[in-house]
Amino acid sequence: MAYNISIYHETRRVKENGKFSVKIRVYNKHDNKKTVRYFTTGIDLTEKEFETIWLNPENKNLRGTNKEIELKLRAIEKRANDEAQAMSVFDFSKFETKLFRKSTDKNNIKYYFNLAIEKNKNIDKIGTAESYRYTLNSLANFSELINKCNIEKLTFNEITVEWLKAYEKFMINKGKSYTTIGIYTRTLRAVFNNAIEQNDISNDIYPFGKNKYKIPRTKKVKKALNSIQLKALYESKVENNKEEEAKDFWFFSYACNGMNLKDIALLKYSDIDDNKFKYYRAKTFDKSSEKTEITIYLTDFTAKIIEKYGNENKNGFVFNIISKEDDINTQYKKIKNFNRYINDHIKRIAKANNLPLDCSFYWARHSFATNSIRKGVTMEFISEALNHSDLNVTKNYFAGFEDEAKKEFADSLLDF
């Protein structure tokens, strides 16, 4: 055993109450390194009290408060040993988290969701944290309305295959799509995996997988404008400056290889060098140890957009979507609001020009991909331009295009 746990009386510093802190002393030896850390128990004792209650093992006559303190200390010591033994490899950070949580937390759904939310917030993944929060709210709604179980008390044991099927039916009855159900249940599955990895629950109660609950999978249709629609949007007349701005940023994304709005917002003047700029895609930056830098060559159009909307001082961020004073939460909200702003006005332009009414900013990325392949660009080039991890991700962009291409080919068979 690489660790040793004991009750320790910290007598080097007296507290205002004239007593000394009683702590958990943890000694850990790993990779020829010895580490000692102390964790508070919340109990203060004088030296005489500590000797009477803890250092005299032959004292069997403890009564009242002294007996309560002894039992409490023994319970803390036992729990500390139990938590340490449950870890395959001892880790001080994980040990501290487990030691000071409620005994019921290890089997509590909300507790693990909150851990995931805080973890993602701490590493600036606000969108992912929001996804966990939305899922938790949905599960709480179902659990409280249908199962009459408050989310505070919902445990992993209660989420069975039958529970998940009932949740799926509940969501369908509320008009939710299978795509949404898939997102929420995959998030729940991630929480299960985290709890199993921490040895807090048994793999025996895992409700997902073969012969268990199957998470709905839907083929995500990547919507895009064809070349005729793109020309119509590009040449469309706008009613005001807001529509003009929305159209300009839509085509800036399109002309920059389908650049995401977050990456546009984070673009800095220091990223621009002569006739090009370089950036790392924020969405995939933390998903791989190998960081891929994307290079975008400026055209007359994209250079004009930067000149038109760029900050006058030519310092910091190029566009006035976020500012350097914003914290990560403020940045997330501003980018989300700007995305909503663009979508609102792009839809107005689309309606006025008989284009698809659900056209949005994200269509620019899909439109770049599908129209590039129509021009004969290889899928490998598109995959690199979109910064995809593999070609299978890129192929999803071309389902609609392939169907259209097949129809055109069938119609042309008799054109001798």
TrEMBL record:
**Record-annotated Tyr recombinase domain positions:** 220-411
* Keyword check for Metal-binding: no
Name the Gene Ontology biological process terms. DNA integration; DNA recombination
Q: Which residues cross the membrane?
A: none
Q: Which SUPFAM superfamilies match?
A: DNA breaking-rejoining enzymes
For this UniProt entry, the molecular function terms from Gene Ontology, in alphabetical order, are: DNA binding
Does Cell wall biogenesis/degradation appear among the keywords? no
Where does the Core-binding (CB) domain lie?
111-196
- List the coiled-coil residues: 59-86
- Going by the entry's taxonomy, the superkingdom of the source organism is recorded as Bacteria
Which keywords appear in this protein's UniProt record, sorted alphabetically?
A: Coiled coil, DNA integration, DNA recombination, DNA-binding
Family per record: Belongs to the 'phage' integrase family.
Please report the name of this protein according to its UniProt entry: Site-specific recombinase XerD
